[in-house]
Write a structure and sequence with these properties.
Length: 227
């Protein structure tokens, strides 16, 4: 009689998961102020169409978890995705817009806050930055939110609706780049998707797409940053 020989268990493949960071659509902002975390700033009509375009781009994806910043424009952008994919919208305060001292002000040299010398000390350190929430704190809270979404959607896909600056800082942090940067060179357009691809808990790649590119091209605020 041949004794039983123990067999090695079959190795299990790590789960493949994608987390999409979706920037909200265009906001109705006729005053042209830096609205930041202020309440009452909704999507414009074009912004609503951008949200619909993002939802259409995600309609055939294996999205099982949807979460958004608590700000109204992010919740509005998440709404058509929730309707299309029959998902509820979770809210994560870690996905909120970056804190900024210039919130509620027009930010510019000509007729904006920068013409007042009393505010210039707020600009003394662009590497932190001195005018708002430190870059590293934004990157760390966004990283925590990213990994929580990955865990919630393990083996599938998740969508996190957030804001330009936090998404861009998360990407730079994940890629090991310096967090200080020129805001004019961010690759994070309105209603764009910055997608983080994982094997298990290991990040294997980051991709980028703009499902509302045609609408962004006609938007007067397409170059707006920190929104």
């Amino acid at each position: 009689m041949t004794p039983d020989v123990p067999t090695e268990p079959e190795p299990t493949m790590p789960l493949t998961t994608t987390v999409h960071l979706l920037r909200h659509g265009e906001v109705h902002n006729p005053e042209k102020i830096l609205y930041g975390r202020l309440p009452g700033y909704r999507l414009s009509e074009r912004g609503e169409r951008m949200a619909d375009a993002a939802a259409a781009a995600l309609a055939d994806r294996d999205v099982t978890y949807l979460v958004a910043s608590p700000l109204e424009r992010a919740q509005q952008t998440a709404a058509p995705i929730a309707e299309t994919l029959h998902l509820s919208i979770d809210t994560d305060p870690r996905l909120i817009e970056s804190g900024n001292w210039f919130e509620g002000k027009r930010f510019g040299v000509g007729d904006g806050a920068l013409k007042n010398p009393s505010v210039w000390p707020k600009l003394r350190n662009p590497f932190r930055p001195s005018w708002g929430e430190p870059y590293v704190e934004i990157a760390r809270r966004m990283t925590a939110a990213l990994h929580d979404a990955r865990d919630r959607a393990a083996g599938h896909e998740a969508v996190c609706v957030s804001h330009q600056s936090p998404i861009w800082l998360l990407r730079r942090y994940a890629e090991g780049r310096k967090l200080w940067h020129d805001p004019r060179k961010r690759q994070c357009g309105l209603a764009s998707l910055t997608s983080f691809h994982f094997e298990g808990d290991r990040l294997t790649g980051i991709s980028y797409s703009e499902p509302a590119a045609d609408l962004v091209a006609s938007s007067p605020v397409a170059a707006e940053h920190g929104a």
